[in-house]
Structures are given as structure tokens and as C-alpha cells.
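Example record for the data management plan.
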Amino acid sequence: MFTRFFIDRPIFASVISIVITLAGGLSLYSLPVAMFPQIAPPTVMVTCQYPGANAQVVSDTVAAPIEQKVNGVDDMMYMSSQSTNDGNYTLTVTFRQGVDLNLAQVLVQNRVALAMPMLPDVIKATGVTTRKRSPDILLSIALYSPDGRYDQLYISNYALMKVREELARLPGISDVGVLGTRNYSMRIWLDPDKMAVRGLNAGDVVAALREQNMQVAAGSVGQSPAVDGQRTQFTIDALGRMSEVDQFRDVIVRRTGDGRVIRIRDLGEVEMGARSLDIDSEVNGMPVANMAVFMLPDSNALETADVVRAKIAELRADFPEGLDYMIRYDTTPYIRESIQEVFKTLLDSVVLVALVVLLFLQNWRSALIPLVAVPVGIVGTFAVMLALGFSLNNLTLFGLVLAIGIVVDDAIVVVEAVEHHIEHGLPPREATIKAMEQVSSPVIAVGLVLTAVFVPCAFITGITGQFFRQFALTIASSTVLSTINSLTLSPALAALLLKPREKGQYEAMPRLALAGIGAWLGYTALGPRIAPYLERAGADALHRAAIHDVARDVLQRLGASPEQTADALGAVAGAVLLWAFAGPLNRLLGGFFAVFNRGFVATSNLYSRLVGGLLRVFVLVFAVYGGLLFLTYDTFVKTPRGFVPSQDMGYMLANIQLPDSASLERTRAALRKIAALAKEEPGVASTVAISGQSLLLSAFGSNFGTMFITLEPFSKRQSDDLYYDVIMNKLRGKLSAAVPEANIALLGPPPIRGAGRAGGWMLMVEDRGDMGPAALQREVERLVASANVGPTNGGIDVDGERIPVDEAKGPGAPPAGGPSGWLKALLPSGQDGRRPAVDGLTSVFRANVPQIFLDVDRDACLVKGLSLRDVFQTLQAYLGSLYVNDFNLFGRTWQVVVQAMPRHRDQKEDITRLHVRNDRGTMVPLGAVAQVKEINGPLILTRYNMYPAASINGAAAPGISSGTAIAAMEKFAARELPQAMSVEWTELAYLEQQAGNTALYVFAFSIVMVFLVLAAQFESWSMPLAVILAVPLCMLSAVTGVRNSLALGVRNAGTDINIFTQVGLVVLVGLASKNAILIVQFAKLIHTQQGHSIRESTLEACRLRLRPIIMTSLAFILGVVPLLYAHGAGSEMRKSLGVAVFSGMLGVTLFGIVLTPVFFYVIDSASESRLFSSRRVRLLGGAALDVLTLRLLWRPAWTLTARAAAAARRGRRKPEPEPEPDNFDET
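Corresponding structural encoding:
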């Protein structure tokens, strides 16, 4: 037995564990920290601008040719574009997970290059940008002038030149966009009246600028080849491209017949101004230059944010006096706090597991051995994570929290078996050897089973595989390390530390251990109560003890925060208290353990009698088992599906849309009003407003606005009234009533960063029959109005059917009273079919925005001698902000732009007063050849996978899962939309659809893997069957707990089978198998080695294994309690996983100890019957086992290796020397 080697060499076993722990501890500091593994799909963005063009022109001339070429690029999932009325075009191409983002960018860029010849000339000149970028903002840095000495023009360009470029070079940064940018531009403001008087077209000014503002390569004098004897060479320089305002004013446009020169200063004004004034940005009502930092999709958020913060702090030293910065929008505190909360959960789980071990073993020496396994199995896993390229994220840390119970389980089995033999009179060393002969095989079997459950999960593809992979391999790694520890260090420590004692004898705990428990209790219980007292400390503070003052002052001088000071004081107080009362506590514990032992013995006897009775009526047991299987399937199928639960990330997004054609000033005023109202709401910290842009739609427009509403830190929002969803619902009602002219959509953050711009889902309605924007708007508005719940509309149910108003039920209606109502709530057959399924549907697509159509009479132009080119160039120059060329200043290139003065383009009548020169030199007003008409047109045109589309944002109604809401909306849209229109999901909803119903397949595959591994290890078909039969029932208890989480006192956990519930179900497969293995393996051992009957062996195994099963199960259950009642950042994820595993483990324990003995008794009896014990059946079963477990491949190699090793050992064995004769007698 190889474990005896480590029993005899405890130092060797200790060195192995120390090396593993040191490797993990050193690796911990090298692991990156992230919220999730790389889950969000890679994205590449293509952007350009067509100045003066409306949405339809951009869509026809820019979007269509680019998307025709980009469509079908390798590994593309979908693409979406927006064309806006200010000439902006944005295309987002989303790729499958695992695609090399650099290669994807190159592929898209090559496709865009193919489209360049088909694009307008102005875009050929200004270029098309292709970059890899995450769609959401990492953080926002606002530059402002506290004393108001600098205007926004200066601040914006300082941010662009001195800050943006420095940040853009940092690792992990994709782009830094200045929201509300006012890039320098040479603005040529023309007066159309002065132009007409002088007989000039706008094209004349443009031509003069292009001719006189151009870069000149003048060459040099004396350059080779030169004449013989040339002694000098000079480079020639000339004023080509201008840089000063006066130089542009002096540009000559024309010379008149009388010799006078007409310059630009005679025709208007020239100034160094802003290229665009279409977007404003404010923080808490203060004008700022807001820099939005976008990170690369494959970069680490925390590391990137830390680098950005350090860089902006460094740059601040060079800021001019009167300029400062602030960060009011940052998504990374949520990630940091969620990781910190998981670490706290990890610590709490260790303490609770330690208390369970002490309760059952009642010996601090015995309790110490399983606890030593925790640092080996948990800390050592960090080394494996680093080797596999993992990060410290929520999923890997969840795996470590669950692994705590698994890690101590194996050590508990070893120690409990050793204690059993010590209580029967064996010395510790012999007891350890005897115990390891019995439990080594079950420990190895449990390790193999858990590894077999989790390792195959690493090969799942798609979005589900991204979630499962790191979680599963983390638990598998800790399980392997736990198995190694249980076979090496645990038996060595048991033989070394344990002392002979009588059964039930309690060994008093050392004062140091009690002080440690007191420190933990003080840290968790006293610390939060002391913190408010320290925060109030000051002149008006209450009287405090002198020692308290000294401790507080010392800790604060060391740099501890008030919270850390409070935690430290609480820990010290708890430790001192339990140290002082160690004696009475030990006596109290001794009495409690005596009562507990008597109760457990009585429970064991009752359990044995229960199992004996069930063995007599095993047919009835199998009938009940069949009913439970049907109930499990029915409950699982009818439980709604979800994806990732919505989470309180400390901020929310508001998309604001004012009436069509509302001015930027009007939008700015509305945003200020919204910001003031939001600041009054408890829990709101600050607001960041952007006028003229919708980040939700990637669209620009004077009536658009975006606001980030950041919330107070989680430590100040502990109550349920300050949960983000509650705050958001309050703000919806308040803002709708206070700002009725604005369409305000309040949305939570996306649960997966980079998988969308906001929470909820987005549905794209596609016009595949080219019915036009007006028809698309009509159908979208009808769809939204019908699905939303209103005073005259009941919404749609989970089947996508309309709900009459009188039949609509509010969410969360209480169940009927009595036992039947309680049972219906416990095991519902499905969701209430008449409850609204969706809520808050909005769409900002507008096809009837007031616009002006200039109907140019081409025949009249021909008669009057006007060139259409001159007519259109006049419109573009006077009204469209025409880009001419560039100039250099501050080491950068800026644009020269021509436009009419504001007073000549603020009314539609001004269009007809513009003049164009005909071929006879006469100035003709546009009103003579064109008519101005009022029409309606689109504000923004969206294309999804090349089809004209409109987006609908929405979310599931309270109490309805996202999967149910998506299915209901899809059914409703299929019935309501005409055949020429279709729908597709995008962003997070697309990923949820892609994930599909993988939970059932992963669960079934895990059971199959457990069966095959056990069959290979035990050389039996019957033993694995007895183990896995009870496994499916863990799904029943887990799903029942998930659907009734409120009954457990858990809020905001969700009642659907989301991705974390699926993860929990896979964990339960391994745990259910572990408990069954302990019973089945022992019963088989007693039956074969001691010759007892199957019935007697079963009852004896139940009696002997009940204690370790209950102990390990209770250790695991209490280990996940901190997940169950989590709070703070990321608590929704922890609760979803905790509820599933907690309730599932309760069912695993109950069903396992009751049903597994019956299964073993029936199956083992059948396997020893005449039918199954025949030679032919055994040969057939062995052959099948060889094929399914691949023993045909690995067994011959294993046999040859074992023989070679044995031969080598015999060859190295030296003959024993003959003893020398003893001469002492002669002496």
C-alpha cells in the first residue's frame, strides 16, 4: 500500500504539500483579475463621416458599398450599422468567440479597402477608420476648469492634444474618444449677400482655398546632377499650406475688371473655431471635455483602468493652472468589489467548514488535519490556474468556494476512519494503516469521479463553454490536489498528531484556537457595528475608553481606513473575549458534544431501521423513484431558462430622445433637468450627461441625449430600497412625470461587459421586402404598443398572446392559501400564463422626422444657364459645412471648413435667397429654379446584416426569465409582422440564443462520464449503476430551491435556470456520486471480504458511513451558505449559484442516504443471480467494458509498465549479507 510510505515518512509528505502551497501562493500575485473570462465576442468597428449628408444619403452611398464587401468575412456572427443625419456612419462587426482579434481587424480592413473606389470623394479624402474596440465604455475622464478661466474650446483641444494621445498609447486601450469634442478648425464664415453682390459662387472661394492653401515641395538649388564646380546646395521653402487666421483672410478669391482684389475678408469672417458644436458633455451640470476610454475586447479591465488612472494622475502635474480632471463614471469598482466579496465568502466558508469538522470529530487535533488540506488544495490551485492562463475572476473563485467543501471531504473521510479504529483500541499508527486500507479506494474513486465530471466541461464550445471552462478546470485541479493530499499528508498527520482516546471523549480546545474563532466572530459581527462609531468620531463623539482611543489612533496612523480600523478592533475584541473565557467555553462544548453524540447515535439507529424497512419494500421504493424521476423531468422542462442574471453594477444608462428636430439647446436643458432630479434620489451619486449623441444607438442628433447615472458605493446601499432596480423604477416614474416632452429609457448595465451597451435585450426588426422606413416605423410602433403593458393594454403572455386588460395579473401574485397553494408554489407546473412576459419596450426609430426637400427644376436650370454642379456645391458650402483641405498648427493637421454665417441659414426661407452665378455671369437666386418643400424622413437608418432594420430594446417583466421573455416576444413578432419583415436577436440576446439548452446535455454527459470512470475502476457494471441512479434527483431539489429562493430568504437570486444554475447542477453530479460511493464501496467491501450477506453488508455500511456522509455533506452545505446570503457587488451571481448548490446538496444528501442502499441491495443481488453470474454474460460485460472505457488501449501498456517496474526493482535488490558470528559468549 503506497500510503504507508507517507505514513512512515511524514516529513516527505509535508514537503510535497509545502511545495504545492508555495507554488500556488507565488502564482497568486501573477494572476490577472477580471470579472469574467473572455466571454464577450470580439468586435471590429468601421467609422467615417460624410459632412452635410443625411441618413438616407449615407446609407445609400456609404453603408451599402462597405457592407456589401464586408459581409461574409470569416467567422463573422453579425454586423450592424447606423447612418445618421449629421453624416456619421458606424459599422460594428461581431465575430465568434475565440477569433484572433488582430486577424479579424485585418480581414475587415481589407474588405473595406475593396469598397473605397465606390465611396464619395470626400470620404476618400478624409478616410475610413477600422479599429478593434469594445462597444462599452471602461471609464470616463472629465477635464474641467474649476474657476471658469478656460472655455470648452480650449479644454477640449487640450484634452485632445495633451491627454488623449498619451492615454491611447497605453496597453489595453482601443480608443479614447472625446465626447463633445471641439477640434480646432479654420472656419470660413461666408456672407451669401456679399458673395452675390460681387458675383461670386461658393465654389469660387473653395477653389481659391484649394489653390492657395496647398503644400508645396519647392525642391532645392544646386542639387545633383549639377555643373562641375558646384559648391553649394540650398533647400527651397515657400508658403504653401497656411497656419494663421490672417493668412486665410488674405486669400485672393478674384480680381475685378478695374483691378481691385477680392479677398476672403471681404466676403465674410475667418476664425479659429470648433469643427463641430453638435455634442456637449456635462458632469453634474458642469460643462466638461469628457474622454471616454474604450478598452480592447481581450484586455484586462482592472489592469487597464489602473494604468489609465496612474497616467492621468501623472499628466495632471503638467496641467495649466485652473484646469483639473475628475472621474465620475468608472465600471471597474464593481469588478474589484465583486472579487473582494468572493474572497470574503471564501474565508467565511473555511471558518464554517472548520466548525462542522469540529462538531463531528470533537477533537481539535482531528479537526486540524482536514483544515490543512484547504491551503494545499485551494492555494495550490492558483499555480494550475497560472499555468493554464486563467484569471482570478468570479467563475474561478466560485469554483474555489465550492472546492472548499470538496477538498476537506476527502481528508474528513480519512480522519474519521482513523478515529473509528482508535476508538476501538488500535494505536494511532496502526489505526491509520488500517483505515487507509479501507478508504484509499473510495478516496481515489471520488477524485476520479469529480475529475471526470468537470474535465469534459472544458471541451464545451460556444458561449456556454466560455463560462464552464475555467470554472470546471479550477474545481478539477483542486480535486486532484485534494486527492493527493488525502493520500499523503492526511494519513501522515493522522499517525503523528492523533492520540489514543475513548469513544465520545472531548479534548479541550487550546486558548489560541478559541482566540482565532473569537477574532473571526469579532471581524464579521463587531466590525460593521464599530465602523459607524468611528466615522462619527470627532469633537462631538461619545466618550471612549482610553485603550480604544490608542488602538484606533495607532491603526489610523498606519494608514488604515475607518472600515479597516473597525474590523481590526472587532477582531481584537473578539479574540481577547474568547481567550479570557476559554475554560467555561470548553466545559460548555464538552456538554454540548455529549448531547450531540447521544442524539446522533439515536439517529443512526433510526436510520438503520429505516433502511432495513425500505429493503423489504424495494419494489415500492423503485415505484416512488420512478415518480420522482418524472417529477424531476417535468419540473426541469417547465422551469424558465435564463442566461446571466441582471446585476447591480453601480450605474445605469439613460437614453433620452426629445421630439423630432428639437435643438441641441433644448436637449441640453432637458438633460440638466433630468440630472437635477436624479441627484435628489437617495442612492444616486452623480450624473454624466452627453447632449447630441445616443451611445445606446451609436447615433448622433440634436434631439438625442445620453446620461450615465452612477450610484453610491455598495457599502452605502445595503438596504433593499437602494438596490439599483428599485432606484431605476422610482426614477422612471419621476422623470416621466417631470420631463413629459422627452422619451426617457432607463436601462441597467449589460451583465457581460462588451456584450452590449445596456441590460435587457435588443430585437432587430428587418425590412426584408424593402417596404420603406415609414412602413418599418409603423410596424415597430405597433409591435411595441401591443407588447407593452399600459392602461388599455395587458401586454403579452409567455406564449406571445395578447392579454386582455381585465385578465392581466401583476408580477409576483401571492399563491393561494392552504397546503395546495403551498405545494403549487413549491413545485409549479409552469409560469402563470396570463402574466405579462415583457416590460419597458422602447424604440427610437423615426422615419417621419420633419425635413426639407429642395426640388430643383433641372429644366429651369438649363434655361437660366445654371450648372447643377454649381447649385449643389452652393448648397453644400453654405449649408453643409464643406470640408476644403487642411492646415498645420501645434504639430497637427486640422480641417479648413467653409459655411455660411448662422444668420443666413437659420430659416428655411434662407435657402431660396442663396445665389448661384450662371454662364452669363448673372447671379440667380435658388428660389427661381427650386422649391422648398416640407417632408418627413428618417432620423437614423440602421442596417442589420445588410437589411434595413429598427431596434427594439426591452427586458423581461419582473418574475419572468429572460429566456421566457425572448421566446414570447419572438412568437408575438412572428404573428404580428407582415411576411416582408423578419426579426433577429442581437448582442446579449443573440448570445443567449446561441447558448441554447445545454444544461440538460451537460448534466446527462456528466452522469455518463461518472458511470464509465467507476466501471473502469471497479471492474463492474453493477456498482456504478447503484451509484448514479440517485444522481438525477439532485436536479429536482436544486430546481425546486431555485424556483422558491424567496422561501429561503434570498432576494434578487432569480427563479430561472441560468448559466450559474447550470454550473451548480454539474457540481451536484460529482457530489451526489461521492456520497453514494462511500456507501456502495463499503457495502461491497464488507460483503466480499467478511462474507456477510448483501442485506447485512448494506445495513452495516449505512451505519458506519452515515457519520462521514453527514459530516462531509454538512461541511459543503455550510460552506456555500455565504454564497446564499451574499451582498454587495456581484451578489446576484453568488446567490444564483448558492441557491442551486445549497438546495441541491440537501436533496443529494437526503436521496443518497435513503435510496442508494436500496439500489445497491437490489442491483448487487441481481448481479449475483444465476443469470448475471453466468460465464457468457460476464464475458460479454467485460468486452463491453473494455470498449467503452478504452481499456483495450491503455491496459496492455499499463500491464507492461508494471511488469517492467517490478523487474527493475528485483534487479536493484541486493542480497542480504550473512550475519557475522556472535563472539560475546566467548568473551
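Summary line stored alongside the record: The longest helix spans residues 1131-1167.
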